[in-house]
Amino acid sequence: MRRDIPPLDEVRRITQKKRDAWWTVLLVDPVATPLVRLAAMRTRVTPNQITWGAFVLGLGSAVCFWLADWRWLIAGAVVYHLSFVLDCMDGKVARLTGQGSVFGAWLDFVFDRIRVMVCGVALMAGQYERTGDELYIWLALAVVGLDTLRYINSLEIFKIRHSMRKQIKERVREARRAENAAELAFMEDLLRDNPEADIDHDLRKTQAAADEPEAPQERARVVDLHQEFRSRFPVYLRLRAFLLRHRIRTHLISGIEFQMGVFMIGPLTDQVLWATVVSGALLLLFELAIVYKLLLSTRDFTRTIDSFARQPLRATH
């Protein structure tokens, strides 16, 4: 049954994330987004059904990897990428049609982890049977372990950042109950709302709004919990602005690129060992960079909390 679906440009605006992995932006979205529009217009497929389809294709790619012959490796890489395209489509269909659910998010997460685990074990087991090299057994453990590690790290960092923001907001609420205090804004939120603007521009714009005498109620104190990181790495500002103009997040080697290195580049080039080692090393490097950024952010947090005691959040009239 045909549905009233907006034009493709509008579908892109609704379904595509403001920031995403470069692999998704460059190699998946150009295919997935038109397919999402077509699926929404011509079928009654649900996001959960697409999630199941992606999972089944993932298991199919694992079978190909286990057979280990170079022809099967190529087939496995192609099927894995098709599985990933479907995996990206389920969320887009949910956003476009309003069929998203909490259970669907859980199903997507669990199936992703199972797919990586099964494909990792199957790929390395096939290579072990093919070569007799015991290193592939360790690589299977490494693939599963790294995929788990990045999710644990991401979850813990999210919890710490949420806790820091919550404490800052509580300080502001206390100040506002006692006096006419300034509004609070986080720099990362300003940039998320306007991802194409660079940081200096937002700072100037926010400061100008704070200095405007006609509208004191709109003034805001901007809290930047990444200030020390940006001051130490000024080139990051230019790189970030360039990437965001193309919807690419600065975490260039994330779990997505790691999976594609292991399950696509390695099998397609018949260099599974080296592709896995390089992909794993790059993933660890970027995860360590995120931890370092968090460390600097906690210092910004401490300075911000201390500044509340020295300078009340009072709006000037």
Automatic annotation (TrEMBL):
Against PROSITE patterns, the record matches this protein to: CDP_ALCOHOL_P_TRANSF
- Keyword line: Membrane, Transferase, Transmembrane, Transmembrane helix
An example GO BP is: phospholipid biosynthetic process
Gene3D superfamilies documented for this protein = 1.20.120.1760
Q: Does the keyword Metal-binding apply?
A: no
One Pfam family of this chain: CDP-OH_P_transf
Q: Which GO terms describe its cellular component?
A: membrane
GO MF terms, alphabetically ordered: phosphotransferase activity, for other substituted phosphate groups
Superkingdom, taxonomy of origin: Bacteria
Q: Where are the transmembrane segments?
A: 21-40, 52-82, 248-266, 272-295
Report the sequence similarity comment from the record: Belongs to the CDP-alcohol phosphatidyltransferase class-I family.
Report what the protein is called: CDP-alcohol phosphatidyltransferase family protein
Q: What is the lineage of its organism?
A: Bacteria, Bacillati, Actinomycetota, Actinomycetes, Kitasatosporales
